[in-house]
Specification:
Blueprint (H helix, E strand, L loop, with lengths): L3 E2 L23 E8 L3 E9 L10 H4 L3 E3 L2 E5 L5 E3 L2 H11 L10 H14 L11 E10 L11 E11 L33 H8 L1
Helix pairs in contact: 2-3
């Protein structure tokens, strides 16, 4: 995969590692590539982190064609950066996307995209114990139209977020859980096996 790289000219100030939390800060760059029916995946690129221009009628907004993955990069005691099972996460996205009638890039390209982004933003991988660079590969439908059918264009992108403990504080600790028996998000035949945005929207209430 040929990835065009455009580096930021305005690097961000990195937050103190003790204040990372989860999902609050984002690295300097993102990876993106687009899919168009008849052309396939194209325009692989790493560019400065910034908002996307997306049509207000894009299918992601109206028909919920959206899914994501999540993995991490860790900095070892030897200073080397290691990715946690990137191929497994790419495989899970590739297996789940057909449930939403969405194409995915080849699995090896999804892994390469993550590796390339981490290499560009290596300085964003924190050093403290219990921290990591959280990676969020995401797939959305971008075609602007109103009508119930799968979209004909998509965007696959990866963003990176330096992260501490998901639940705050240091080390592992127990958490209280809610066992829901009525407003379920994953009925038989539903989207439970797919990391679709709709699954998480269904859990918010």
């Amino acid at each position: 995969m040929d990835i065009k790289i455009t580096r930021t000219t305005q690097p961000k100030v990195k937050p103190p590692e003790a204040e990372l939390g989860f999902g609050k800060f984002f690295s300097d760059h993102l990876f993106a590539m687009d899919f168009t029916e008849g052309r396939g995946w194209h325009d692989a690129r790493i560019e400065p982190y910034a908002p996307f221009h997306v049509d207000p009628a894009a299918a992601v907004f109206h028909y919920g064609q959206a899914m994501f993955e999540g993995s991490k990069a860790f900095r070892g005691a030897d200073g080397r950066i290691r990715l946690f099972r990137p191929a497994d996460h790419a495989r899970r996205m590739a297996h789940g996307a057909p449930r939403l009638c969405m194409p995915t890039p080849p699995q090896e390209d999804m892994v390469e995209a993550v590796r390339a982004l981490v290499k560009i933003d290596a300085d964003w991988v924190p050093k403290s114990e219990g921290t990591s660079l959280y990676l969020r590969p995401t797939l959305i439908a971008t075609e602007g139209f109103l009508g119930v059918r799968p979209a004909k264009s998509y965007r696959y992108f990866v963003i990176a977020s330096p992260a501490g403990n998901y639940f705050g504080g240091k080390g592992l600790k127990s958490v209280r859980i809610w066992v829901e028996t009525h407003e379920v998000r994953a009925p038989r035949g539903g989207l439970g096996a797919t990391k679709a945005g709709a699954n998480y929207a269904a859990s918010l209430h």
